[in-house]
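FIELD: query
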Amino acid sequence: MKHTYKLTAFSILLAALIVSVGISGCLKNLPDDRESIATNTQFTQTVYSPVLGRNTLFDNNFSVGNSSQPLTFKIINMRNRDGSAAPELTQLFPVQVWTSPYLGDEKSIAEIEAKRKIENHALFEVREHAGQFLMWAAARSTFVKTQPDSGYVFDVEMSNSGGRRYFRDFKLMPLKEREFEPSTLNAVTGLSQHTGLSSSDVENIIGAKTNKFLSGDDIEVQFHKVGDGNSLKFKFVDSLYNPIDPAQFNLTKWDKLVHGFNMEKTNQYVKYTVAYPVPLIVYQTAYTNTSGDKAHVVFSYDRQAYGNIRSVSNLKLDFAIYEKGDWEITFWFRNESPKFIND
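FIELD: result
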């Protein structure tokens, strides 16, 4: 009986060993998992019209679908609409890139510039593993075709270890530079349509002559580039273009108005040393609007109105400047000056 038990146990162990070896051999012969390229992977935008002279990132333009990640993207066959080569968009150019995050609390121009460096890139690129397209600010209408020209056509190669797929005939139709926003320039022709702009918001500002509330139409905002440095100056002028002392805006937080340094305040202007563009990136800071794509400035003052009531007035502007230089922003009170004195 004991011999029978031992033989049975031995048979079971032998069978288990054979099964184990068989399974192991089968597993070794199984093919490796392959990544896939899904048919529902697609770009959701096929025509791109960046404004030249500024970094423009096109995101949310790609749906990964069921494709395995990571995916790798590459622009291929960049060409003019007639099929001829477009070397201006395939050659490398020096561009300014961030190597450390900009936070908005940097204490000097030097600290900001230490976070940027120059690298060589194609002026129009696709982010390697995201499918997002980027036009660098170094692209200029002096050598890159802009509307109304029909522009460029290009293809994209997408790949992973499972294969590759091609997306063809994307259209790149850039617009001419607009050095600042809001802009007075026509997006296609690049020609100025009027001399100035209205303020973003005018709150409780009374005219000195009429005692009537002023609106944005009564205040023209003008942008002027007067040099090639890196400064930003704010000026206020009356209907005859005589200067209004910035000190009249007595509640303005001049030291926190913009992310600038070396403030110079006179009875005709307030000037800062700044790093361009303004704002430096699309990112909300204490100096921007909530979207982070525009600088946000508020000029405030108070006065005593009738009935011994304290009246607070605000002049606001959301803006961006993309071209480095010595820029002046002038607020021209076209019809009458604000009333600063008490009633």
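FIELD: remark
The first helix runs from residue 2 to 29.
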